[in-house]
Design a protein that fits this description.
The complex is a heterodimer. By secondary structure, chain A is an alpha/beta fold. Chain A contains 13 helices and 8 strands. In chain A, the strands form 2 sheets. Chain A has a 4-stranded parallel sheet, with helices on both faces. A 4-stranded parallel sheet of chain A has the order 6-5-7-8, with helices on both faces. By secondary structure, chain B is an all-alpha fold. The radius of gyration of chain B is 19 Å and the shape is elongated. Chain B starts with 5 loop residues before the first helix and ends with a helix. The relative contact order of chain B is 0.13. Classes of the chains: A alpha/beta, B mainly alpha. At the A-B interface, helix 1, helix 2, helix 3, helix 5 and helix 10 of A face helix 2, helix 5, helix 6, helix 7 and helix 8 of B. The structure holds iron/sulfur cluster (2 copies). One iron/sulfur cluster binds near residues 29, 30 and 79 of chain B.
Chain lengths: ~290, ~150
Amino acid sequence: MKYAPFFGCMITVKYPQMEAAVRKTAQNLGMEFVDLDGFSCCPDPIYFKATDKLVWLTIAARNICIAEEAGFDLVTMCSGCTATLSEANFHLSNEPELKEKVNKRLKKIGKEYKGTISVRHIVTVLRDDVGIEKVKKSVRRPLNDIKVGIHYGCHLLKPSEIMRVDDPDYPTILEKLFSAIGAQIVHHDKQALCCGKACMSEEIPERMTYDVLTSLKKSGADCMGLICPTCFDEFDLGQIKLSRKFNQDLTIPILYYFQFLGLAQGLSPQEVGLHLHKTKTDEIIRKLNNSHS
Amino acid sequence: MKSINYKFREKLNSTIGGEAHNFCYQCGACVGDCPAAMYSPDFNPREILLQAILGDEKTLTGENSPIWNCTNCYTCYERCPQAVRPVEVIIALKNICYQKMTAAPEVREIVDSVKATGRTVKITSLSDRRRKELGLKEVKIVPMEELRELFEQ
Ligand code: SF4
Ligand code: SF4
């Protein structure tokens, strides 16, 4: 199975540990990545989209064209990139007038959007192409004793009309993927809350993050598992700031799904870049090692 | 009774995603699960749609417009029975703010970065070193000459 990976800006530059974890684990699942040249920022669905939707769509379409020319589906690792590229792909393939407008612009650089490929967040590839069974089979050190609070974030699921991934209110895709690697899943009150990152007030996202973290800690989870670098930003770096601000210990390890998968496949914490996180992950590693000693 | 500013509504109609504001019947289904409304009494997507229907340009596209508190979570898009896609109307309003130079300052910062480098996040010697340590290849180059053609109208 060959795919064109789209790592975007946040992962490539700010959180390359996520890229390392994806590349190493995907290989163990028989996924083949064909790295294409010429991608830009997706462009981001919050700030860039807020300036001019037509320019936003055109630059997104340019990225899609690169994958179309090569003939591979685009696989995204960030919920923001997923949102932009999926929305653009959806609108351009369903609205001929819009497509014409965008193609007129793309013509200046010799490109044309055709609508021949799909955009998919990598977790959907794991569920639908690789298969949960194969994910399970790749595990050498199941995360037996580790309790994970899942954070879905918004853009993997919504708008469901476009994303077509899962029930947007009661999703199960990540439960399936975390169960496959042996983790115990812990539910908590605020697990469906948005990370708040896109809100441009200072106070609102802080209170949202605070509520998610306190609810997560109360649930007895050892850590949070997520699939988006923007949510990661809000919770990993964010908890340090908030702990200071509220004079309360809100720290809890935050990991990207493919880092968990890597550990379960037998990769070392270093190889999946856990040392690059703001919050200490020693406790999880200790638990993992204990359960396999 | 306020008079309706149709000129502003026309402008909204001609902005991508803005036209659906016409179909809002003020049921409020978009409000209950809106996180920005939960966390701020000043934010309410139904009210934003009402202001759009009235063409209240000043409130919606002025310096302190409430629209910037939306978290872009897309829950209202799921809930609205009229396919108004409130969040897309809000983003259309943001597009109008950007033209009027009243957009939140964060927007310009990020967009300037994309226009200069093709990315939202700057590559630094630290980020290069980290990639190397993790066994990753160097970041690929963004063909800026192509991108620049597309930033132009
Ligand atoms: S997208 Fe914005 S308006 Fe809609 S529910 Fe989320 S925060 Fe509220
Ligand atoms: S749910 Fe739709 S129709 Fe109802 S108030 Fe909100 S935008 Fe208007």
